[in-house]
Amino acid sequence: MSTIELLLVTGVLLPLASFVLLAFVGSKLGKPASGWVAVLAMAASCVLAAVALMQWQGLDAAGRAAARSAPVLWATLGGMPIKFGVNLDSLTLIMFFMVTFVSTWIFVFSVGYMAGHSDEIDGVSKFHRFFTYLSLFGFSMLLLVIADSLLLLFIAWELVGVCSYLLIGYYFHKKSASDAGIKAFVTNRVGDFGFIIGLGMVVLFLGDLSLAGAAERFHHEFTAGGPLFSRTFCGLSLATWMGMLLFCGAIGKSAQFPLHVWLPDAMEGPTPVSALIHAATMVAAGVYLTARIFVLLTPEAQQFVAIIGCITLTLAALVAIVQTDIKKVLAYSTISQLGYMMLAMGVGAWIAALFHLLAHAFFKALMFLGSGQVIEGCHHEQDIRKMGGLIRKMPVTGLTFLVGVLAIAGAGIPALWMPNHMKLGLGGYFSKDEILAVAWHRVYGENHGENEVAAGAEIQNPKSKIENATVGTPPPEPRPLSPLLFWIPVLMAYVTPFYMMRCWWLTFMGKPRDRHVHEHAHESPLMYVPLVVLALGTFVSSYYLFRPLVAAAAPHPFLTASYDGAAAEAAEAHATMISHGAHAALATRVGLAFVVGFVLAWLIYRKGLAVGEKLAAALKPVYTVLVHKFYFDELYGLVLIGGTMALNAVSYAFDKFVVDGLVNLAAFVTERLSWFSGMIVDQGVVDGAVNGVGRGTWSLGGLVRSPQVGRIRNYILFAATGVAVVVVWIAFV
Amino acid sequence: MLTVGLTQYLVLAAFLFCCGLFVMTTKRNAVGILIGVELVLNAACLNLVAFSRYRVGTIDGQIATLFIIVLAAAEAAVAIAIFVNYYRTLATIDVDKGDELRG
């Protein structure tokens, strides 16, 4: 095992050690020592990740290849070896670093946050319980990141799901919280069901669960025209189905349509949990999975991903406009941003998706922790309608939150005349633009003769390389995408800044709308230090630091094109493409979207809620639909839960009448049969025979003993009579 | 004139036998029963002697009778010993009281 791998594995095991320690002696460590144990483990992990990242950066391509060691054989199932190892590439390292870094600061925040929250169960403080779960979560997430096999990834995936359940339902004595935990878990199970089937197809058709091995076999199957490609089901090849089913897991975990309903409810958990799991890391696992199985996707499956992402980002962005709970706004914005990432995966913007993921992790964790600070400061008030003017009471929170708002809105200076590397902007500016640029390219740039890509900088489609490498059927031409997949996300890029600015303005600016809430507002240092650190991280997590790292890990799918991935080897060409081609078309359309959104929000909400309420009244039908979140919960309640209930009723009736009836009938027949055998056969016949013999013997005995009177004179008389009879007999007969 | 022949002896013996039998069946006193037994024995002895005298012509019957007399004496001794024990147990020699062997 190479040094880097050793660092990573140690980094994974540290939170596990913390989990074990806290699980056993956490109650003795008490408050807040048990929290600091978890922080320490995660911080150590983060340091190890940073060291590993720096070492990795110092290696050339050969050194990086040498750093990967062979996976360890874990088990052999039916001739298929199950190997576990570290999937060492730039993406793993940067994800590892991001998860540990963000987690560390969220853990620090948690120590401050949980100090002010009830943690008693039956009057005993269970402060350590929270950090036990957090540590387990850290371990699971890191394991997921380094997993090199779909099976190991799946194990970590499920562990993450369990932690999510435990942490959402942390206040389990609250009905809504325990319901939300169950909802999250069950909804995820629906997605995991597809994931498991997908894994089964991988085992069946590819026979290798390791990521690299499966990709290799997938390629081989394609060139050989194996059953995966030759057989179809409902008009789609099995390979497409496999990709779509594997992606189902990501739909659940990343809260994509139609399984997005759990994430807003998950806000019932403590706010650091929302920040950690439901914004920065766990929900990103779905995107990470999609990135890892990217090479197993067919163009059709990829299009499926894009469509799901597009629907999700639209629905969530629209719902976010009308939310009044500060955490719900952030929850829907998270779903929307995840939708962007999935869309990016779907249109082939592999690098942009992960770049957006990393940038999003920082600014969304920042905003969630900010909301936690606000909620904590305002005595558990979550309704932004009752806030307002908090910037004076919470300057640090307000300003760092603003950094997050700017980042998610994609604030930057769309300076076309400047060379790419000199542009200024926050992470979201570059990542979102890149996603949209690739979408634009797929819709308009490629197949429609409007290619604006400069002649000298045409993108290097990886297909050309693959064609040289493999003799056989050339991969199909990528299909043109629907223009909707470009225009809807662009439209939503205007909506995002609007709802974020609405949330920020209502919370921090304007006049205080609730005197009581305003008076009590305060900040605590333990909680705002992480905010400042993450705000700095948001500035740093920009184009220059994260993007090259992600780009270095870009895969080489042969069926689908990773459009910006092509530029991994030719960063210059890519940059030219983006700046000259798609970006030029985009800058005017999206570049200033954040300004438009901000101004619109400011115009509506600068005087408080009045204008917004008038608008809501004017657009009542739309408003109603949005407030009810497109009636998804109601629909699921009616169709799924109602359906389940109806099925229950039917099963119950079947059970009650048919099954119970059969059982009762069997019991009745048995009872009658035993009555017959007992009363008639046994008591009547068998007992009768035995008793009859006894009675016969008895009466015979009574008969033969009657002459035995015991008197000697009688015996003599009998003897004499006998003799007389004999004499008479002899004499006369 | 009635001559005494075998018939008269046999009648006498039958009479004696019947007397003995009657005594045995009617007497409740054990000694009475013993006397009845002696009568029956002697009736049998009389028959033996009579048949020996009038039919066989040897003295086998007389000798057998002598044996019977001795045996009767021995039997009487045994019987009286039984009666003594009987009396010790039941404080009476009424044979009807000793009906423990009643079926």
Short description:
The complex is a heterodimer of chains A (733) and B (103). Chain A has 733 residues and is mainly α. Chain A contains 29 helices and 6 strands.
Task: List the secondary-structure elements of chain B in sequence, H or E.
Answer: HHH
Mean pLDDT across the residues of chain B is 90
Largest sheet descriptor of chain A? 2 strands, antiparallel
Number of alpha- plus pi-helical segments of chain A: 29
* Silhouette of chain B: elongated
Number of separate domains of chain B? 1
CATH-defined architecture of chain B: Orthogonal Bundle
Topology (SSEs and partners):
The complex is a heterodimer of chains A (733) and B (103).
Chain A: H1 3-29, H2 33-57, H3 61-67, E1 72-77, E2 80-84, H4 90-115, E3 120-121, E4 124-125, H5 127-146, H6 150-168, H7 175-206, H8 211-224, H9 227-230, E5 232-233, E6 236-237, H10 238-253, H11 262-265, H12 271-280, H13 282-292, H14 299-322, H15 326-347, H16 350-377, H17 395-409, H18 427-445, H19 462-469, H20 484-508, H21 515-520, H22 525-540, H23 546-552, H24 571-591, H25 593-605, H26 610-618, H27 620-627, H28 632-705, H29 712-732
Antiparallel strand pairs in A: 1-2, 3-4, 5-6
Chain B: H1 6-26, H2 30-56, H3 60-90
Helix pairs in contact in B: 1-2, 2-3
